[in-house]
C-alpha cells in the first residue's frame, strides 16, 4: 500500500466512531475504557477479542454471527484494520470496535475478567529463539490473557504454522492447561466448528492458495 493511501486511512480512522487509538502513555497511566468497555458499547454483553486482527475478518465475521456479543479487534497497524472498521460502519454493526495498541499491553486495556473469549488469528510464529518473546502464545502472553479473561474464558488459535500449532499444544500440555479441541487440518479433518470453517482472513487466503493446511486449537488457561 502506498504511503498516500495509508495517510488517507489514518485520517479516516480518526473520524470512525468504532476506532480507539490511545497513546501508549494513556494506556499505562490508566486507560479510560479499562473496566468500562460496557460504556463504550452501551451494553454489558460479553467481549470477544481478536489479537493481531489485521484487516479484522474475525472481528467482523464473528460480530455478524453473534450480535449479542461485542467484538474488539486489536492491531498496531491502523491502515490494516481500517478495512474492518469501515465495513462494520457500512453494515451498521454496532457490536464492533478496533483498538490500535500493542498486544503486550492487553492487561492495561482490559480489567480483570472483562473479556469472555480471545481469538488469535494467523500470528507470526516467531520461530527464531531470539524472537520467542514475541510469540503470542508464550507463557508471558498466556499470563496476560489469564488476567483479563473471565473464569472459563476460551482462547482460539487459528494458524497455518505447524510450528506455532505444535509449540502451543506442547506448552499447554506441559503447563497443564485445558485443550478443549485441536485439529491440524481443519478443512480436511471433520469436526471443526463453523466459526473456524466459515471465516477466512487475508493471510489465511494466501496460505490456502498455496495448499497449506490450516490448524486450530481451542483452550482454557487454568
Ligand atoms: C500475520 S498478520 C495476521 C493478520 C490477520 N489476523 C490475518 O490473519 O490476516 C499479524 C498481525 O499482527 C499484528 N501484530 C503483530 N504483533 C503485534 C503486537 N505485538 N501488537 C499488536 N499487533 C501486532 C501485525 O500488525 C499484523 O497485522
Automatic annotation (TrEMBL):
SUPFAM superfamilies: S-adenosyl-L-methionine-dependent methyltransferases. Its EC number is 2.1.1.33. One of its GO terms (molecular function) is tRNA (guanine(46)-N7)-methyltransferase activity. S-adenosyl-L-methionine binds at residues 50, 75, 124. Keywords: Methyltransferase, S-adenosyl-L-methionine, Transferase, tRNA processing. Gene3D superfamilies: Vaccinia Virus protein VP39 (3.40.50.150). InterPro entries: SAM-dependent_MTases_sf, tRNA_(Gua-N-7)_MeTrfase_Trmb, tRNA_methyltr_TrmB_bact. The keyword Methyltransferase applies. The keyword Cell inner membrane does not apply. It catalyses: guanosine(46) in tRNA + S-adenosyl-L-methionine = N(7)-methylguanosine(46) in tRNA + S-adenosyl-L-homocysteine. Substrate binds at residues 128, 160, 201-204. Catalyzes the formation of N(7)-methylguanine at position 46 (m7G46) in tRNA. Belongs to the class I-like SAM-binding methyltransferase superfamily. TrmB family. PANTHER family: 3-DEOXY-D-MANNO-OCTULOSONIC-ACID TRANSFERASE/TRNA GUANINE-N 7 - -METHYLTRANSFERASE (PTHR23417), PENTACOTRIPEPTIDE-REPEAT REGION OF PRORP DOMAIN-CONTAINING PROTEIN (PTHR23417:SF14). This is tRNA (guanine-N(7)-)-methyltransferase.
